[in-house]
């Protein structure tokens, strides 16, 4: 179980850091207003579009990756153990 927690935490921190860096570059209008959550630029160049796509992908990877290792995989393991005990 500690192994799954470490993997989920690694995914959460690494992808979260990547999301925060890209959000800081592209969606922070000023330091007095909503940082990291401002609307993206209206007409980004090709690299800006790729970075905005990567920002969204990192956000969802952080959330779904952590939930997978913290909730889904332990639930599957417990279900397998319960089914194997029931079969014996």
UniProtKB/TrEMBL annotation:
Q: Where is the DUF7314 domain?
A: 1-86
Taxonomy, superkingdom: Archaea
**InterPro entries the record matches:** DUF7314
List keywords of the entry alphabetically: Membrane, Transmembrane, Transmembrane helix
Pfam families noted in UniProt: DUF7314
Record field: transmembrane: 9-27, 57-76
Q: What is this protein called?
A: DUF7314 domain-containing protein
Q: Which organism was this protein described from?
A: Halorientalis brevis
């Amino acid at each position: 179980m500690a192994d799954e927690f470490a993997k989920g935490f690694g995914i959460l921190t690494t992808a979260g850091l990547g999301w925060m860096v890209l959000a800081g570059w592209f969606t922070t209008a000023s330091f007095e207003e909503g940082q990291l959550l401002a609307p993206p630029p209206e007409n980004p160049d090709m690299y800006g579009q790729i970075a905005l796509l990567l920002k969204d992908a990192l956000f969802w990877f952080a959330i779904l990756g952590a939930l997978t290792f913290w909730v889904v995989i332990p639930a599957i393991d417990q279900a397998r153990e319960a089914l194997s005990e029931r079969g014996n």
